[in-house]
Amino acid sequence: MVHIIVIFMVGALVKVADVQTIEKALNDKKAELNLNGEIKWTKVTANYLDKYIDIINLFFSFIKSGKIKFRVMFGQNAYVSEGLSKEHTDNEYSILYYYFLKDAFGLKFSNPTPFKNKVNFSLYLDDLPCSEYQKTSLKNSLYRYNYELKQSNIEIIEIVEIDSKKHVIQQCMDIILGAMNFRLNDFHKLKDADTGKRSKRTIAKDKLYKIINKNIRDIRPGFNVGMNTSNDGDITNIWKHQYRHWNFISRYSHFDKSLTKRGNKKDNN
Asked: In the predicted model, is pLDDT for residue 254 greater than 50?
């Protein structure tokens, strides 16, 4: 099997005024369900499926009500980067993270009344898999982005690294991240080599993915997990939409059909 999708990152945007209310509701639900400790995709099993469905349905209720904006960025391995410098390849993750934070939420469209109001953003970054130099470079790049945002009276005022074990919103993000990776890479089709059947854990995760997909389709009818979300003819919807997917394709890449599912099948025939 060739896994053709790489999940880069996910993000949730919440107003300061709503953070405590959302965190309390999610933590209260965790306590009600006896979900002690960190909840995450890797912990989803048949025994815990109903509990994870309850918590993820609650999380999506905040997305549907507009209290959370959610974004997913992913790419295909079939788009092979070329002509990149060593600096680009060495800093690939931090560069991608920069563009995700800069563009996925459409921050520059967040203030429709710049002459009356100022919009401030705090960025909470979870466990960056980068060197300290790369982290510092990423943060500096984001702060420099303020020069572009300034004309719309928007500012990134702080960038903080956090531990997801202490933040339930980030834990719910991990579940959605895991579900997208699971589906886009066809892990829902994996079967045991001895029995030829899917494991109970795989079936449970597939059921949870379908619940997540249904929630997304309540927001975006006709949603396609492997496609960019349309801006519906209005570029400012990149900011306004509650839920969006971004299929990232670098301008410095070419498409290698042999790395697709269909291309790999032909090679194996």
From this structure: no
Q: What is the dihedral of CA 125, 126, 132, 135, to 10 degrees?
A: -30
- CA distance linking residue 173 with residue 181, whole number of Å: 12
Q: What is the pTM of this model?
A: 0.88
The confidence score (pLDDT) of residue 256 equals: 47
E strand or H helix that includes residue 255: strand 253-255
Do 227 and 94 form a contact (C-beta atoms < 8 A)? no
- CB 245: neighbour CB atoms within 10 A? 22
Average pLDDT, the chain: 87
pLDDT digits (tens, 9 = 90+) for 219-239: 999 999 989 999 999 999 999
Flag whether pLDDT at 264 surpasses 70: no
- Yes or no: say if 154 and 105 are a contact pair by the CB < 8 Å rule: no
Helix (H, G, I), strand (E, B) or coil at 208: helix
Q: CB-based contacts of 173: which residues, under 8 Å, 6+ apart?
A: 10, 11, 12, 70, 126, 164
Give me the residues paired with residue 194 across strands.
none
Instruction: Give residue 154's identity as a one-letter amino acid code.
Output: I
Cα separation of 255 and 113, whole Å? 42
